[in-house]
Structure formats: C-alpha cells, structure tokens
Amino acid sequence: MNSSEFSRRDFLMRSLTGVSAAWLTAQWPEILAAHEHARQAVASVAPPKLEFFTTAQAADVEAICAAIIPTTDTPGAREAGVVYFLDRGLMTFGQDQREPFIAGLGAVTEVSKQLFPAAASFAALPAAQQVEVLKTLEAMKPGETDKGGASLNGKNETAGKLTEIDGAQVFGMFRFATILGFFSNPEDGGNRDGLGWKLLDFKPSMAHFPPFGYYDKQYREQHAAAHPGKKP
Amino acid sequence: MRAATAKFSPSEAVDFAIVGSGAAGGVMARELSRAGFRVVVLEQGPDVREKDFQHNELKYIFQSAISNDWKIEPNTFRHTESEKARVQPALLYGRCVGGSSVHFTGNFWRFHEIDFLERSTVGPVAGAALADWPITYADLEPYYTKVDWEIGVSGAPGPFDPWRSKPYPLPPLEIKSSGALLERGARKLGWHPQPAPMAILSRDYRGRNACVHCGYCESFGCEVGAKSSVLAAMIPDAEKTGRCEIRANSYVREISTDAAGRATGVIYFDAQKREIFQKANAVVLCANGAMTPRLLLLSKSSRFPGGLANSSGLVGKYLMFNGAGLASGQFEYPLNEYKSAVVTRVLFDFYRLDPKLGLYGGGGIDLRLDMLPIVFALAGLPPDAPRWGAEFKAQLAQNFTRSVNSFGHTTSLPVETNSISLDPDVKDAWGLPAPRVTYKDHPEDLKTAKFFQDRGLELLRAAGARKVWPIPFPEQQMGVHLLGTCRMGNDPKTSVINTDHRTHDVPNLFLCDGSSLVTGGRGQPTMTIQALAFRAADRMIALAKRGELGAVRAATRKG
Which of A148, B82, B186, B538 is 20 to 30 A distant from B340 in Cα terms? Predict the structure, then answer.
C-alpha cells in the first residue's frame, strides 16, 4: 500500500467517526476491504494491453472516442483510456456487442472513404475531417444513399453500399460507449485516474457531510441567523 | 453477523411459503415468523447483503446488478391488444433478497383519504375502471404508523398530510440544495413545501446506522443499512426467529393445487435450474405487480383453466405505472446533488387537483437529480446542447453539479386493457413464457402529467434557475411501479383478493404487493404496500388462530 492509499483509508476512517454506530463499526472493516480490493485491482491493471481490437481497429476506436469527448484544456477520452475500457468490455460483459461494434467501425471506414477517398483510415484523417465523417454518419438514415442516386461524395459508383446502415444508431452506439468508458469506475478499465469524474467535479466518497452545495449552505446560514441555535 | 437461520426440507410442509422477499414479502416473513409460524421465502434473485454492495454506476444501472436482467428474463411490450408485442425492457424491479426495497429511492408517502375513495368522490372516468377501495385510510392508518416505527421513516408533518396517530420516529434528513431551492421557489409562488417523508434513517435507529450521505442511493443497495429496505429492517428479525428461511436463487414457476382446489406448495427452479417442490400449508405471493399475476397465469390447470384465482378474469388487468411530469433546470452555483439521499423536500399543494381545472387526480413535486455521471452525460443536458465534441464536454463540466430536475409524481387510472399477460411466443431462460406488457396511458393521466410539468417549470424559474426546459413524456413503455393487477375488493366478480388479501377462489392462497392496490395513489406506492403487508399478516395470523387456515398452526412463541 502506498502512502496515498493509506491516507485515503485513514481519511475514510476519520470521516466516519462522527456517525459510526456499533453496527457500522462492526461492518466497516468488511466494507472497506471490498473497496480497498477494488482500488488494488485498478493498480494492478497497468500496463493495459489490447485483447480484442487489432492495432488498426484500436486506432480508429480511439479517434472516434476522442472526437466525441476531445482533449481540450482538460483531458479527454484518449487520456482516460476509453479504448481500453471498450476492449476489455467486448472481451467480458459486452460480448454480445462485438458484432454491431465491428460493423459500426466498418461504417465509419466506409463513410471516411466516400468523403475522403485518399484516407487510409478514419484514424489517419485530420481532426476536422474526422468530425465531418462523424457528422455525416450521425445524419444518415437507412436507404439514404439510394434515394435520388446521390451518394455522399456525389459519385454514383458507391451508391447503395450503405443502404442498410442507420447512421444515427451507429453513431449513438459510439457515443454511448465513449460515455460509459469515460465516466464509469476506473477499476472497470476506463476513466483513468478518475479524469472523467474530475471533469465534472464529481467527488465520490463513502461519506459526505453537509453543507452539500451552495444553496443548502446559504439556507443553513440564513436559518441560523433567523433562529439562533435551532436546527435547520 | 447473520443469525443462524432456519433450514427446511422441501418435503416438509411449512406453514407459509412466501414468494418474493421484497417490500411486502420481507414484512410478511418477519411478521409471520415472529408469530410462531414456519416460513420459507423463495426469492428469485441472489442473496446479496450490505457487504456485497458496490458504488458502481455501470454495474448497477447498466448491468442489472440487483435488478431483473432482460437478457435472461425478456419482456415484451405493446400499447394495445391489436398489436403484436415486441421484445423490449418493459418492467424494472429489484431481483435480490430485499427486492425493490433495496434499490428504491426511499420516498415514503402515505396515501391520503382521497386515494381510497376516489371513485365515489370524483365519479367515474370514461375509459377507466376507477373503484373505491374496500378499506379506508382509517383502516390502514395504524399500519402506516407501524411501518413508520418498525421500518424507520424520517420526516415532519406538513399542511396537506392525512392525519396520523403518532409522530414520525425520526426527524427529516439534512436539507440538500435541491430542498433549499424547492423551498425558495415554492414560497415565492405561495405554495407550502415540507420535509420529504423518506425511508432513510436521519439518526441511528434500532441498531442501524444513520445515512452517511454517500449518494449511491437510488438504484443501489445501502452499505450502512441506513436505507430502510426490508433487507436492513425486516429480514434480520425474521431470520433471528429461527423459523424463517430465506431461500435465494429460487425462481418459482407454479403454485400447485390439489383436487379440492387448495394450494399445496410451490414448484421452483433452484440455482442449477433443478425443479423442486416446496410443500406448504398456505402460499403467499409477494412477487410484485407483474410477477404475481404472471405466476397465477402460469399456474393454470384443468380446474383453473384461466389461471389460478382468476374466476373474475381480472388477474393481470388494471396495470398502473404512475405518471410523471418532468422539467429540468440549471443554476448559477453548484448544488452537488450527487451527494446524500435523492430527495429532502416535497410539495403536496397539488395532491388533490381542484376539479375546476378539469383534471382528474393529482400528485406531488420534488426537486432532485437522480443521475450519476454516466446517465448525466447521456441525458442531463438540455435539448439544444451539443451531443458531442468540445462544447458538449464543456457543458457537462459546467452543469453536472449545477443541474436539478423537477419531478411531478402523478396518478395512473386503472384501464382494463393495460395488463400483464403471458407472451405466446417469447420464453425466458427457464423456458417460461415472458411477461407481456400491454400499456397505453389514459389521456387524463397525460393531461395531469402535463399540469405537473408546467408547475415544475414555474418552480424552477421561481427558484432562480438560469435555464429551464421541459423533459418530454412520451407514452410510457416501461413500468417501475407495478400496481393494480390483482385488485382487492368485496365482490369476487370484480376483484381477485378480499380484504384479508385472501384470493376469492383459493382459501389458502394470499397475495400482497403492488398488485393488491385498487388505485395507484400519487406515484409513491411502497409505504402503502408495506402498510398492507403488516395488515395482511395480522389478518392471516387471526385466521390461523381461528383454525381457518387448515394445517397452519403457530408454534409456541419464542422469538
């Protein structure tokens, strides 16, 4: 156990002294052990390795996720390791999602090539063009390329290729997957270092104490001024 | 920590086999075992206790950690009987020891006098089978009070409350920013906010710990036992008697009957999917408002061709989900709604709507953000916000701590075609017909929900929100509150159970859960389900003492 883990546990124990009854005191070591186990599991995850995606697929997945939650002045999906969450998910709890996921990657590749015929892959495109690909995908409805004979790049030879694809649904799947990987618990493989939670200022803890937010703090202060000594 | 619990052999006839260990089943198990009866509780879900619970949104919200798993238990859904039902999630309930009382939010409103007498008070409503209850608020009040004190409820009286014979055992929970803003907005509008009645301990109580405000509350199990689930408040007492066995991973598929038409026990699948017959002198179904009627329909026989206890033809009918009028708002400063219990203040000014408004029913309003990071990112921003990219990310960062929803909890009318039935084609992982849900909101309920949405928008604006928007309420396709499907009544032609919760058709078969309700109340049914369970247990104990339950006999009371 390193010092930061120790101080966290110490904090948890201290933070509960104000509320612990006999029942909790008895239960607490067991609860704490479970959470400690979860944290150690995170520590033992590194370095992540890809088990499901090929290197090329992983590059596309990472680029898609990074377009959905980009790196700005704060870290995004790339830094949070969302691709590793998805890789692990498709090997474990999400095995039934493999087929639609791989089909979705195929659709992204297809749209990339229609819009930018020189593109080697989605991941190889400049960021602005990646965004254009995903916007096109998001707006696509099944059968769209058939109607009026106009394909995405104005060339008819590819018309009909994407008729089966509900682009909005495919994009929705990637959006959902990115959000899961960015905001789920770090022990599940994404949200590395809690980067997703830090973005939101979400501070999970085994216990919180009032005041919880700005308005209840203000409420308590006003109540204390109006009714000295009385509980709000 | 757990008491050595009873173990019964399936071939030994216990006094009561209870199906389901949730809000009603947990109460029933405690009351009947403490009264001296031998009880087996068959619970389809796993035996998870406080030490097993996790703070993990992915597992609890998206992977059915303690709720029904549609991958193995599919549902089918259609709006009307003329449609073919399609496979989709349509029912959500707790699937673990303690049932939905483990993952519920803890809102613990009593029904009011009007909820029992709506039909005679407001008259008939076209397209609905609105009926008065055969019991009144006065009949149930002692049991509401019993629930308050036995389960542990925090709160304080308000101006619209029904009368109560005893105060709350516990003071209200610590106010959150949502509560402070509800008070601010409501007072500006001339309304009357009050502390919310919550089945969560604000103080240590009966050896259980007070809430530590961790915020993993709705959809999660409470690790410290502060949420007044039956897992925390009832089941330990039942196990302590030495006469109650909670048998987890036991999925009941049929209630057996003999040639005389009496229940003889239940057939269930154990964890290895082996069929086992548990003999019982009486059977009590507390399996929830979807699973109880389904089990009766699954238990059809030559003697009961339309399903057990279904001479009325009403088993599974009058399904009510409750309605909702929703709005959302963003504020200037952080509320941090992710901390502590979901709700701390509530508004009952519109519990009973003025008939002059031309609206039936009514409801209550609270402010809350029952969204943790994943759900917030998926659905917490206004409709005009970008759905991805840098601006999406910026808005998430700005608003996660500053958002709150107004939730108007409203009535549902009993409509005969809204129902649970057996799907003719789709089967679950045990080969049993999937529950088929047919549901279409009554137009009056949609009007009422809209009224509550409008009040929510007003409330958020009056509280000082910088931005507010309505959350659309498409016709419901998923039920969490599962009510009314085996309604109580005096007439066997128009109801399934009598006021003792005894089925009209099978003298040693009792039903108690959301299915027993005649009306759906105003959106928070659990308190009433538990009051009914305490009352039903009393009635059953009295029947047994009078020798009216055959071989059911209480042991000399020890526990």
Answer: B186
